[in-house]
């Protein structure tokens, strides 16, 4: 491992050691010591894949937050040093420990150290007096462990006679085994806790105390209203600085492996990139920064609302190279003749606008946008006819006649698209009309220099997680099938000589190494490429035979060092994440074979 990567490890390892001491001394009931529940068959699969001890460590790590927050500085708007100074000012009371990432080319990534697990004094007196309590849902507790407050909708139960201002201990109700192999939360909102052993979840929430705070409403108030702050957390088992809405547009909270995935794609200025499953846009904007906002990023997602979110985020970050599209990744490749037009990489079906104030504005903006598109297409067709164009892979340079000046200017096509986007999208999040969501019928084959497929997955690497029982072997296989179908589309969209990066946030080898195996075995023009930086661990080599006879093939010897596997139990203390990078060779024959 390179020296810089070792330094990064040292920085995080020092956070990690402090974070994990003192766990053993906590009194048992009022402690945080969860055991993650899994579906039995899935647990058995993971235990065999990783070995029981390793899987047990992974499982334990998943139930806790990382010991630091990772921040990407928006270098278009700030510098790492300026961001550190501002963050120190914002987090002054908490004496923030902030350091820069030592990995080469990643000094714009900052780590803010957290602390924990802390032993909390819940005020259990020797005379047996018990604390007043608030019982929250699992989702609420996972958010609190990441630094959030307790909001009204997350509260399930509360001790009788809690008044506004009372100090309350906060614990969590996690799913329990129910009938028919299912899982249930056997508690309804509004339950009164008596502090006795007959309370619902009395035994089950032992070791599931996440801190204490001050009730912002009385018990009656908490269950009467639908929203608002219920408990202001003053003592947390894990202290991670809450950075939401802090330095908006200048910094972005993002997991380290996600930033590494953007680097692995290695986007270059002026290129045309597809982010196939882009929402909420974390990696899209990371890629935009690496390209210094020069080129074009098509940010696709199937959810209309999420696509609007990408639009807003791009505007907030000051990135104009991003065009969000609503499209199903399973239908990404446009097979109609429209895609053959050199000027029409994307088979745009229609534009429609969401989240825009005022229908007149919508109409006028829409008309303008159509006009621009129409003008651009005409200009391109004219030049196509005149023979003044040349095509260099996807970086098409065209000679554009400027009507006003009546002179010929040499302009890159990426620059034309960028100008159109700025006109269409407006100046930025706060001033923008809202996110215009363009629908697409698909994109022309081989029309991108690089494609990122950050696939929807089982998300079994995300942390903190207090329950994992919902996923089964069957659901894992469904995820993998979906991912393969998306990959089938992705490989067709990359130009020969281009790059495809596949990533997930799961620890499941079936969605990681097995998908890579499928890709390499199905598309002979793909080969694994080395990644920079490389700070994750090696992939899993071998195969797995399931009791039902199904065999999952993973990597072959020699391939393991070409992928990056981020193990949540390693000293890097990240989420579980996986990255594979493929070089795309000449694919004509293979595509014909696979299509027939
Ligand atoms: C892992 S998240 C992507 C995270 C994103 N790359 C980021 O870094 O911010 C997966 C995304 O895939 C989207 N998705 C799921 N199925 C899809 C499909 N068939 N077509 C397009 N997007 C899909 C989901 O809406 C979700 O936003």
From TrEMBL:
<dbReference type="InterPro" id="IPR018314">
    <property type="entry name" value="RsmB/NOL1/NOP2-like_CS"/>
</dbReference>
<keyword id="KW-0808">Transferase</keyword>
<dbReference type="InterPro" id="IPR036974">
    <property type="entry name" value="PUA_sf"/>
</dbReference>
<feature type="binding site">
    <location>
        <position position="301"/>
    </location>
    <ligand>
        <name>S-adenosyl-L-methionine</name>
    </ligand>
</feature>
<dbReference type="InterPro" id="IPR023267">
    <property type="entry name" value="RCMT"/>
</dbReference>
<dbReference type="GO" id="GO:0001510">
    <property type="term" value="P:RNA methylation"/>
</dbReference>
<protein>
    <recommendedName>
        <fullName>SAM-dependent MTase RsmB/NOP-type domain-containing protein</fullName>
    </recommendedName>
</protein>
<feature type="domain" description="SAM-dependent MTase RsmB/NOP-type">
    <location>
        <begin position="184"/>
        <end position="585"/>
    </location>
</feature>
<dbReference type="InterPro" id="IPR029063">
    <property type="entry name" value="SAM-dependent_MTases_sf"/>
</dbReference>
<keyword id="KW-0949">S-adenosyl-L-methionine</keyword>
<keyword id="KW-0489">Methyltransferase</keyword>
<dbReference type="InterPro" id="IPR049560">
    <property type="entry name" value="MeTrfase_RsmB-F_NOP2_cat"/>
</dbReference>
<dbReference type="GO" id="GO:0008173">
    <property type="term" value="F:RNA methyltransferase activity"/>
</dbReference>
<dbReference type="Pfam" id="PF01472">
    <property type="entry name" value="PUA"/>
</dbReference>
<dbReference type="InterPro" id="IPR015947">
    <property type="entry name" value="PUA-like_sf"/>
</dbReference>
<comment type="similarity">
    <text>Belongs to the class I-like SAM-binding methyltransferase superfamily. RsmB/NOP family.</text>
</comment>
<keyword id="KW-0694">RNA-binding</keyword>
<feature type="active site" description="Nucleophile">
    <location>
        <position position="505"/>
    </location>
</feature>
<feature type="binding site">
    <location>
        <begin position="277"/>
        <end position="283"/>
    </location>
    <ligand>
        <name>S-adenosyl-L-methionine</name>
    </ligand>
</feature>
<dbReference type="GO" id="GO:0003723">
    <property type="term" value="F:RNA binding"/>
</dbReference>
<dbReference type="InterPro" id="IPR001678">
    <property type="entry name" value="MeTrfase_RsmB-F_NOP2_dom"/>
</dbReference>
<dbReference type="InterPro" id="IPR002478">
    <property type="entry name" value="PUA"/>
</dbReference>
<dbReference type="Pfam" id="PF01189">
    <property type="entry name" value="Methyltr_RsmB-F"/>
</dbReference>
<feature type="binding site">
    <location>
        <position position="328"/>
    </location>
    <ligand>
        <name>S-adenosyl-L-methionine</name>
    </ligand>
</feature>
<feature type="binding site">
    <location>
        <position position="454"/>
    </location>
    <ligand>
        <name>S-adenosyl-L-methionine</name>
    </ligand>
</feature>
């Amino acid at each position: 491992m390179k020296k810089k990567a070792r330094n990064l490890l040292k920085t995080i390892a020092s956070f990690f050691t402090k974070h994990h001491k003192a766990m053993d001394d906590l009194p048992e009931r009022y402690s945080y010591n969860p055991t993650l529940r899994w579906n039995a068959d899935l647990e058995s699969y993971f235990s065999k894949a990783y070995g029981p001890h390793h899987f047990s460590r992974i499982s334990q790590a998943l139930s806790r937050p990382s010991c630091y927050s990772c921040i990407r500085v928006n270098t278009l708007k700030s510098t790492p040093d300026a961001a550190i100074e501002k963050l120190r000012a914002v987090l002054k009371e908490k004496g923030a420990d902030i350091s820069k990432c030592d990995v080469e080319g990643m000094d714009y990534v900052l780590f803010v150290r957290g602390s924990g697990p802390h032993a909390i004094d819940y005020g259990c007196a020797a005379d047996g007096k018990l604390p007043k309590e608030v019982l929250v849902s699992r989702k609420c507790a996972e958010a609190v462990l990441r630094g959030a407050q307790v909001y009204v909708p997350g509260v399930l139960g509360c001790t009788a006679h809690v008044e506004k201002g009372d100090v309350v201990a906060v614990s969590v109700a996690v799913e329990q085994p129910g009938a028919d192999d299912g899982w249930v939360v056997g508690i309804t909102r509004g339950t009164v806790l008596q502090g006795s052993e007959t309370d619902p979840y009395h035994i089950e929430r032992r070791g599931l105390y996440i801190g204490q705070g001050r009730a912002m409403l009385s018990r009656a108030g908490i269950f009467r209203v639908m929203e608002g702050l219920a408990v202001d957390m003053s003592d947390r088992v894990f202290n991670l600085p809450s950075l939401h809405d802090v330095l908006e547009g200048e910094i972005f909270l993002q997991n380290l492996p996600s930033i590494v995935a953007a680097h692995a794609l290695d986007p270059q200025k002026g290129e045309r990139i597809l982010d196939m499953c882009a929402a909420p846009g974390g990696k899209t904007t990371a890629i935009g920064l690496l390209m210094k906002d020069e080129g074009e990023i098509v940010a696709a997602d199937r959810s209309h609302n999420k696509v609007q979110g990408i639009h807003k985020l791009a505007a907030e970050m000051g990135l104009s190279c991003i065009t969000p599209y609503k499209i199903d990744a399973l239908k990404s490749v446009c097979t109609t003749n429209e895609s053959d037009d050199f000027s029409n990489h994307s088979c745009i079906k229609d534009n429609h606008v969401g989240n825009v104030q005022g229908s007149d504005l919508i109409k006028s903006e829409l008309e303008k946008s159509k006009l621009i598109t129409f003008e651009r297409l005409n200009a391109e067709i004219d030049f196509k006819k005149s023979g003044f164009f040349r095509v260099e892979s996807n970086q098409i340079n065209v000679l554009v006649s400027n009507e006003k000046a009546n002179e010929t200017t040499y302009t890159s096509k990426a620059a034309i698209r960028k100008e159109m986007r700025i006109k269409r999208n407006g100046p930025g999040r706060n001033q923008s009309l809202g996110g215009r969501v363009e629908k697409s019928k698909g994109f022309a084959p081989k029309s991108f220099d690089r494609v990122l497929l950050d696939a929807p997955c089982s998300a079994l690497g995300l942390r903190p997680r207090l329950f994992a029982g919902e996923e089964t072997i069957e659901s894992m296989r469904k995820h993998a099938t979906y991912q393969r179908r998306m990959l089938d589309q992705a490989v067709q969209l990359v130009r020969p000589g281009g790059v495809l990066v596949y990533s997930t946030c799961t620890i499941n080898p079936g969605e990681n190494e097995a998908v890579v195996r499928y890709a390499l075995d199905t598309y002979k023009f793909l080969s694994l490429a080395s990644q920079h930086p490389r700070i994750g661990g090696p992939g899993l080599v071998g195969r797995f035979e399931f009791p039902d006879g199904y065999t999952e093939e993973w990597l072959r010897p020699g391939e393991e060092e070409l992928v990056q596997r981020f193990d949540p139990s390693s000293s890097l203390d990240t989420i579980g994440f996986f990255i594979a990078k493929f070089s795309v060779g000449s694919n004509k024959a293979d595509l014909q074979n696979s299509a027939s």
